[in-house]
Amino acid sequence: MGAASVNRYRSIWISDIHLGTRGCKADILLDFLKHNESDFLYLVGDIVDGWRLRKGWYWPQAHNDVVQKILRRARKGAKVFYVPGNHDEAARDYLGLTFGGVRVVSEAEHTTADGRRFLVIHGDQFDAVVKYARWLALIGDHAYVALLQVNTGFNWVRRKLGFPYWSLSAYLKHKAKTAVEFIGQYEHALAEEARRRRIDGIICGHIHSAEMRTIEGVLYCNDGDWVESCTALVEHANGSLEIIRWAEVLAGRSEAAGALPALPAPKPMPERTEAA
Question: Would you give the DSSP letter of residue 253?
Fold first, then answer.
C-alpha cells in the first residue's frame, strides 16, 4: 500500500498486547501500526506478559517485530510513553527512565487538542482480585490462557473456511453476568478516580474490554486489547476520541475483491452517556 493508506492521528493508546503468549495477535497489531501513525503513542500496560514468560519462553519473530516497530516510532520523533501493568510489573522498577526513546511512567496526564485532561493508567490498581488476592488472579490467568488456546484453534478453522477472526473468549466474557457486573464496577471505580482528581476523563486498559462512555460527567475510555478484540483508542487532530476495532477493519479488507484500496479512516464510535 502507498502512503495514502496511512491514517495520521494526534495520539494512539494501545494496551494488553501480552507479548510472550500464544494468544497475542502480533500480526494484526503489526498491520495496525503499519497503517496508523501518531505524534503521541501510549503503551498502557501488559505489553509483555512476564507472568507467562516466567513459566515458559515463547517469543516468535512477530513479537520481536512489534517491539522494533514501537522503538522505530520513537526514533522517528513520536513521543512514546510506557505505563506498566500487572503482567509487566517488573518494568515498574524503572519508572522515570527512558529506553530507546520510550519513557517509563507509573501514569500520565494527557491533554487533548481541544483542552480536555485525561489520566492514563493501566487500571490493575482498581482490580480487587489483583490488588488483594494475587493468588486468585494467578489461578484465573491459567484458566484464561486455556480459553485463549481454544480460541486460537477455533479461529484457525475459521480462517481455513474463509471466515474472519472472532473472539470466543470475549464473547463468553460478555455473556457471563458476573463478568459484566465486574466490568461495570471497574468502569465506575476509574471514573470516580478521575472525578476525584478533577480531570475530564480516564484512559485505561487491563480488563480487555474496549469502551468509551460518559459516567456521571466523566469520560471513561478503555483501549481494549490485542488478544481478543484487537482494538485501540485514537485522538484525531481536533481532539475527538475514537475506538478503532482493527480486526473488523481487516475483515472488511479481506472481503474486498481484487486490489485493496487505500485504507479509509474508520467511522467514529459515538460516546455513550450513563445517567447518575
Answer: H
